[in-house]
Prior knowledge:
Elements: E1 16-24, H1 30-38, E2 56-61, E3 65-71, H2 81-91, H3 93-96, E4 99-105, H4 115-123, E5 127-132, H5 134-137, H6 139-152, E6 157-160, H7 169-178, H8 197-212, E7 222-231, E8 234-243, H9 246-253, H10 258-275, E9 278-287, H11 295-300
Parallel strand pairs: 1-3, 1-4, 4-5, 5-6, 8-9
Antiparallel strand pairs: 2-3, 7-8
Helix pairs in contact: 8-10
This protein binds guanosine-5'-triphosphate and magnesium ion (MG).
The site of magnesium ion has 5 residues, from helix 1.
Amino acid sequence: MDSEVSDTDAHQPGHYSGFVGIVGRPNAGKSTLFNQLLGQKLSIITHKAQTTRHRIQGFYSDDQYQIVFLDTPGIIQPGYLLQEKMMEQVTRLRTDADLLLHLVDGRWIPEEDDVVFETLEALSLPSVLVVNKLDLAGKEKAQEVLSAYSRKNRYIEHVMISALDGSGVSDLLKTIKKYLPEGPAYFDKDQASDLPMRFFVSELIREQLFLLYQQEIPYSCAVNVVDFQEEDGKDYIQAEIVVNRNSQKGILIGKKGSKLKELGINSRQAISQFTGRKTDLRLFVKVRDKWREKESFLKSYGYK
Ligand SMILES: Nc1nc2c(ncn2[C@@H]2O[C@H](COP(=O)(O)OP(=O)(O)OP(=O)(O)O)[C@@H](O)[C@H]2O)c(=O)[nH]1
Ligand SMILES: [Mg+2]
């Protein structure tokens, strides 16, 4: 864990801190909860599974506490190298996290062979069961789901929430605080994350890709910010969208460039909303055959 403790952050008795990993199946609502806990949108959210690809760090701070929340990709059986790298973001929690939040969809009883339980066992960390989507499931069903999960795994606590409307989230925060050890603030208390702006920008473009394109296209794309310049209160950004195959390039660009133009407009709005600044965005499409299988490319895409 890259953590820096400066003199001013030196540990004081009565101050508590820790790293809390958010894990669960794809689409359980992990990123929605992460953003609710932090009170701002740091992680992208879509209705499609496997939206999150990296581990994203966000800092919650108040006078007495600093909690580093770690949003992670949904737990799956990996089918290709990118998915293996995504799963490593989860398994690394074993050494990096103090506590896990296991987020589940309150509408669904766990399956017998759920890969999530194997992962939880391997992580071997104290876990809080968080039954989510209470607004959709209703209390009765959520209670049934809670009991079913509690029979499958040992949890130190359980909480029911709706990450979308925020109900139950402050109780969850209180629960988390009970289990944090005394410790220093690892990061500046007014800092929200230590990830670079380029990362957030590429994620916001990827979110728009998920919203605009169908089927396998969003899963076949990576986004790299290749240039980022600040000038006179405006950000000048160039980003390339990398696709898996040549045939996907045409789909991405659309008739007379119409689809790529729409992607550019939507992404620019999302980026400006995030930065609070004007944005000039240029998008390029690049073909890198089977990038999802290539170690060297995945390294440049931020995986170790
Ligand atoms: N109604 C309702 N929808 C929710 C709730 N929490 C999340 N969602 C929706 O569920 C979908 C998936 O949410 P995400 O936060 O992206 O889920 P995730 O677990 O991060 O998904 P991956 O990153 O793909 O693993 C989105 O459409 C959310 O709006 C909730 O409490 N209630
Ligand atoms: Mg997510």
